[in-house]
Design brief:
Helix content: 55-70%
InterPro entries: HAMP_dom, HATPase_C_sf, HATPase_dom, His_kinase_dom, HisK_dim/P_dom, HisK_dim/P_sf, HssS/ArlS-like, Sig_transdc_His_kin-like_C
Keywords: ATP-binding, Cell membrane, Kinase, Membrane, Nucleotide-binding, Phosphoprotein, Transferase, Transmembrane, Transmembrane helix, Two-component regulatory system
Distance between the termini: 53 Å
Number of domains: 3
CATH superfamily of the largest domain: PAS domain
Pfam families: HATPase_c, HisKA
Enzyme class: transferase
Catalytic activity: ATP + protein L-histidine = ADP + protein N-phospho-L-histidine
Structural class: alpha+beta
CATH class of the largest domain: Alpha Beta
Radius of gyration: 50 Å
Largest sheet: 5 strands, antiparallel
Number of helices: 9
Strand content: 15-25%
Length: 446
């Protein structure tokens, strides 16, 4: 069953249950209210009659005049004598009076409903004054008359409930349709993603949580499209990077096998083959490392690392190359700055960034570590080289994307993977020195 029908069925069932319970409660309460209202009206009529009788006929000697007066009233009543426990007068026949007297206890003033045959009657009792007379006027109304009013009220209430239920169901259908339609479209979009038709995935108009889910699906489609494109580019670049040294090795190997080269060229060819094998080995090792960094969280073993000690290790490793190129290397590290990272991995990332700066710098390299707060640390590595071309900046951290004088095109991708898996982020921009500026930001560190 479709979700819309399920929601409508559930809502309708809930509505029917609520209406049934509400109807039963109202049906029960309305009878009690009608009985109380009828008793109040009977009491008012009885008090009027008793007042008139008290003013006109003051003693028990006037009982005949009282009976004659009551006979003129269009009411069902008894004139009851408490002292003698007898009915002095009634507007009903003697047979009916005898039946009432037999079926009910006239002396019980607390009983509100009397029975006669299969019928019930609502009663109201009013004492004559003074009470020493012992005379009481008892008025009755058939419960059946009240139940007729009750049934008429319930019928009207049922019509109101029916109209309300119809309007509510229509409103429910409209709201569920508004709710389910985006979900149906979202389902279609997911089908397009399943078929890898990412270009056909469009934003969906929705509200609330569905809007957030729809936006997430749209973003996921774009990310998958980007990922697939990057994978295609990666395989193209990887095949190119691996193919070049393999072709070189193959060419020299076949030449040596066929004795095409003389002894001097063969020696040169072997040296070239060794260099290409080493380069090929480096590319493969970096590809394996990058795959592990991006897929295996277990390779990261985080611990508290002092930033100054970390930068000192970077300086020790790059200093020989810096001195060889006669570059000025400046570094500044705030005191008591700590990072919660995998020391070995983050050292490799910073070395990749630092050697990249050394490779492109003209005369100067700056390394700065600053802490804006206990929860925020920033590492900046910049140089005064030729910088990164504007068209390369958005892609510089992708695999096999190389700038001028680049090596394998994997160093910056490895650095990005390590930094992001360590809870940080890396950005590249132009430095005031003229070259590239890499900014590494860690938030929530130790």
């Amino acid at each position: 069953m479709k979700l819309q029908y399920q929601l409508n069925a559930a809502f309708t069932a809930l509505l029917l249950i609520i209406m049934a319970v509400t109807g039963y409660v109202i049906y029960s309460l309305i009878l009690d209210l009608l009985i109380q209202d009828e008793q109040r009206q009977l009491e008012q009529k009885g008090e009027i009659l008793v007042n008139v009788l008290n003013e006109t006929y003051g003693t028990r000697k006037d009982i005949q005049e009282i009976n004659a007066f009551l006979q003129e009233q269009d009411l069902q009543l008894f004139l009851y004598d408490r002292r003698q426990h007898t009915v002095l007068f009634s507007t009903m026949s003697n047979k009916v009076v005898s039946g009432f007297f037999t079926a009910n206890d006239f002396s019980d003033a607390n009983k509100e409903l009397w029975e006669f045959g299969n019928d019930k009657f609502v009663t109201s009792r009013i004492m004559f004054y003074p009470e020493s007379l012992g005379m009481e006027l008892i008025l009755l109304t058939p419960l059946q008359d009240i139940q007729v009013v009750q049934h008429n009220f319930i019928q009207r209430m049922f019509i109101v409930f029916l109209v309300g239920a119809l309007v509510t169901v229509l409103l429910s259908y409209f709201l569920t349709n508004k709710l389910v339609t985006p979900l149906s479209r979202l389902k279609e979009q997911l089908k397009q993603i399943e078929k890898r038709k990412f270009d056909e995935v469009k934003p969906i108009k929705a509200t609330g949580e569905i809007k957030e889910v729809a936006q997430s699906v749209y973003d996921m489609a774009n990310e998958l499209q980007r990922y697939i494109n990057s994978q295609q580019t990666f395989f193209q670049n990887a095949s190119h990077e691996l193919k070049t040294p393999l072709m070189t090795i193959q060419g020299y190997a076949e030449g040596i096998k066929e004795h095409i080269f003389d002894e001097k060229d063969e020696e040169k060819g072997l040296e070239v083959m060794v260099k290409e094998v080493n380069r090929l080995k480096k590319i493969i090792n970096e590809m394996i490392l990058l795959a592990k960094l991006e897929s295996e969280q277990s390779v990261y073993k985080r611990e508290k690392v002092n930033a100054k000690e970390l930068i000192d290790q970077v300086m020790d490793r790059i200093l020989p190359v810096v001195n060889e190129k006669k570059l000025d290397l400046h570094h500044q590290v705030d005191q008591d700055v700590n990072l919660f990272v995998d020391e070995e991995k983050i050292l490799q990332a910073l070395l990749n960034l630092s050697f990249n700066a050394v490779r492109h710098a003209t005369s100067q390299i700056n390394i700065t570590v600053s802490s804006k707060s206990r929860q925020s640390t920033q590492i900046i590595i910049e140089d005064d080289g030729e910088g990164i071309a504007d068209e390369l900046i958005p892609h510089i951290f992708h695999r096999f994307v190389k700038g001028k004088n680049g090596e394998t095109g994997l160093g910056l991708a490895i650095a990005r993977a390590i930094i992001e898996q360590s809870g940080g982020k890396i950005e590249v921009d132009k430095s005031q020195l003229g070259g590239a500026k890499f900014t590494v930001q860690f938030n929530g560190q130790a």
